[in-house]
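To: structure desk
From: M.T.
Subject: fold request, one chain
Message: Could you run this one when you get a chance? Sequence is below, nothing fancy, just the single chain.
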Amino acid sequence: MRKLQYNSPVILTYVLLCCGVLVLDGLTGGKSTSLCFCVYRSSLSDPLTYVRLFGHVLGHSGWQHFFNNVLYLLIVGPAVEEKYGSRNLLIAMIVTAFVSGAAHLVLAPGSALLGASGIVFMLIFLASLSGMKKGCIPLTLILVTVFYLGQELYDAIFLHDGISHLTHIIGGLCGTVLGFMMRKGRGR
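Reply: Done. Structure tokens follow.
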């Protein structure tokens, strides 16, 4: 008989936390998400402002939003975690949460942000750097940049669909920068 393997601890734990936050959202009528798992302009003297700055990547607006993000997390995440290591991936997720949350506060102060899509885009860009050789830029990175970021830029300019395309772009940029930094750090 085969045993189950918790093969991607950071990704699996993150998915379980997101699911738990969504269940808590249902139990509290949305109050928990509004208080802790959704970033929006609020007083810097409010301690929950800093919780939300990181916690927004755990919140989702509903089960469909959750499933859309979780499918990408579970498809791309384990390979990225194996490639870069659990510790590096956790650091990359924390950095991406902070950068996307802070950028949202500065650039879109009139709206709220929640969801894992910035993390998803960071993972996609980290994955596109897989197999990168020293002194080379992977063609996969260029194609992902053209297709994914190109589409997000177009959507950000021409669509008003309630999706934070800015967060997707920031997630992709974080994935690219962090991927190059982790690659450089490994060579030392």
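Reply (cont.): Helices lie at 9-27, 31-36, 47-55, 63-84, 86-107, 117-128, 139-158, 165-187. Let me know if you need anything else for the meeting.
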